[in-house]
């Protein structure tokens, strides 16, 4: 199957700093990218959906100024957690969809810890 | 709207026991259906998928059949191993987004 690379896999940052997480589709063009957040022992919560070249669509309750999403090309989307706080500590997962619309492929996730 | 309902866990089985994890869905279109597995501290791994009605997905001894008449995609394995201990997520993909079940934690004891 197609490969989605998410980087970094783990990051620890200080409160008040910003962290950028990258999601790349390595061998296909991702027309749509999804960003999820997963709390311990829970399912994935969709944060936002982005299409290349357009603004991301955020789910209700997700602060767009807090979680900046950029989908600048068909192979790269980034999630920037701005002014991070300990409550932002979580597991973040991206997923990239193709124009076939039958499947999307997941990155390996990023464990963010804000201290 | 579209949604997935998955059997609650946790599930504890002895090695070589039969596994069933129920999953039903609600969808307005013709979604693709998936089972993902997540090991502790890791991301999601695709276990199997089915893209249309009556398709059977299979991998590593796991199977699930896309049943439109019962809107189900139950996961089964005839003989589980300790290494199958993980959290399993049923999901549907509409082309616009994924809808996930709540996840079922499986522990297999020797």
Word description of this protein:
The complex is a heterodimer of chains A (115) and B (110). With 115 residues, chain A is mainly beta. Chain A is built from no helices and eleven strands. Chain A has strands at residues 4-7, 10-13, 19-25, 32-38, 44-51, 57-58, 67-73, 76-81, 90-97, 104-106, 110-114. In chain A, strands 2, 4, 5, 6, 9, 10 and 11 form a seven-stranded mixed sheet that branches. A four-stranded antiparallel sheet of chain A has the order 1-3-8-7, with no helix packed on it. In chain A, 36% of the residues are buried. The mean pLDDT of chain A is 91. In chain B, strands 2, 5, 6, 10, 11 and 12 form a six-stranded mixed sheet that branches. The N and C termini of chain B lie far apart (41 Å). Chain B is globular. Chain B is built from no helices and twelve strands. With 110 residues, chain B is mainly β. At the A-B interface, strand 5, strand 9 and strand 10 of A face strand 5 and strand 6 of B.
Features:
heterodimer, A: 115 residues, mainly beta, 7-stranded mixed β-sheet, 4-stranded antiparallel β-sheet, B: 110 residues, 52% strand, globular
List strands and helices in order, with pairings:
The complex is a heterodimer of chains A (115) and B (110).
Chain A lengths: L3 E4 L2 E4 L5 E7 L6 E7 L5 E8 L5 E2 L8 E7 L2 E6 L8 E8 L6 E3 L3 E5 L1
Parallel strand pairs in A: 2-11
Antiparallel strand pairs in A: 1-3, 3-8, 4-5, 4-9, 5-6, 7-8, 9-10, 9-11
Chain B lengths: L2 E4 L4 E4 L4 E3 L1 E4 L5 E7 L5 E7 L5 E4 L2 E4 L9 E3 L8 E8 L4 E3 L3 E6 L1
């Amino acid at each position: 199957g197609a490969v989605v690379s998410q980087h970094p896999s783990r990051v620890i940052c200080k409160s008040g700093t910003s962290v950028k997480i990258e999601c790349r589709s390595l061998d296909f063009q991702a027309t749509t990218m999804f960003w999820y957040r997963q709390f311990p022992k829970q399912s994935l919560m969709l944060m936002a959906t982005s299409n290349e070249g357009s603004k991301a669509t955020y789910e209700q309750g997700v602060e767009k100024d807090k979680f900046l999403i950029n989908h600048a090309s068909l192979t790269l989307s980034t999630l920037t957690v701005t002014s991070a706080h300990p409550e932002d500590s979580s597991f973040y997962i991206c997923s990239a969809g193709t124009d076939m619309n039958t499947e999307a492929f997941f990155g390996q996730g990023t464990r963010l810890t804000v201290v | 709207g579209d949604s997935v309902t998955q059997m609650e866990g946790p599930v504890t089985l002895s090695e070589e026991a039969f596994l069933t994890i129920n999953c039903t869905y609600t969808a307005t279109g013709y979604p693709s259906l998936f089972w993902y597995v997540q090991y502790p501290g890791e991301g999601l791994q695709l276990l199997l998928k089915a893209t249309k009605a009556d398709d059977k997905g299979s991998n590593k001894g796991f199977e699930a059949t896309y049943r439109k008449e019962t809107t189900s995609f139950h996961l089964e394995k005839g003989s589980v191993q300790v290494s199958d201990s993980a959290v399993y997520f049923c999901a549907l993909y509409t082309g616009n987004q994924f809808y996930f079940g709540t996840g079922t934690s499986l522990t297999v004891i020797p």
